[in-house]
């Protein structure tokens, strides 16, 4: 009998071989639907767009928007007052909530013409500056958010609404954490409900896609906002030493 069973089990296991991947898969994620499996993978919250052949290629595309003469004219004229007033409301609210104070040293990352900086200064937060690939004196200095031109622990507060432009989102966040003082606050405006434009370098599908990148900070607040196509405000505070 034993001699007969051996080849039987051998043949049985051979016939099960094609099913092995399915058997293993259902065993490692018991009771979880495929849709849930996809959304629990961290990389599914945030996807970097493919198609840039080099960093220079990526910079060229970003500069193309920043240097577009028609956009720059709009940003500095009919857009200016409206943007400054909306940013002023955001920053006043953040100050009321204790995330920003009059003596905060503040940086706006990817500030274009500097409307955010104008808003901060109008509120009396005078130690504020913007940074972008193209400088816009006196409000915005030249700098790449993948490699900020500032020393460690330079700022108490950093704001950005250009997270979707980051080709290396992990470096974007790492540079913010490096230049923030312990206890400092980072505020990001991001979009979850719609896709960015053709200048976007990544697509975000859930808050966790950003928050997981902040290794040295804690999420302090999340709320819905209406910020020029960006619908979600994240407030993160860098842990104290
Ligand atoms: C750059 O922008 C100009 C308009 O300012 C456009 O004509 C041109 O096609 C753009 N080039 C690339 C590579 O996107
Ligand atoms: C600002 O001033 C307050 C009160 O004088 C002080 O407690 C705080 O540490 C200062 N710095 C920042 C970044 O708020
Ligand atoms: C901050 O500055 C504004 C404008 O200069 C002023 O109205 C406000 O009282 C200041 N707040 C504090 C806590 O000093």
Automatic annotation (TrEMBL):
<keyword id="KW-0732">Signal</keyword>
<dbReference type="InterPro" id="IPR013216">
    <property type="entry name" value="Methyltransf_11"/>
</dbReference>
<dbReference type="GO" id="GO:0008757">
    <property type="term" value="F:S-adenosylmethionine-dependent methyltransferase activity"/>
</dbReference>
<feature type="signal peptide">
    <location>
        <begin position="1"/>
        <end position="26"/>
    </location>
</feature>
<dbReference type="InterPro" id="IPR029063">
    <property type="entry name" value="SAM-dependent_MTases_sf"/>
</dbReference>
<feature type="domain" description="Methyltransferase type 11">
    <location>
        <begin position="107"/>
        <end position="188"/>
    </location>
</feature>
<protein>
    <recommendedName>
        <fullName>Methyltransferase type 11 domain-containing protein</fullName>
    </recommendedName>
</protein>
<dbReference type="Pfam" id="PF08241">
    <property type="entry name" value="Methyltransf_11"/>
</dbReference>
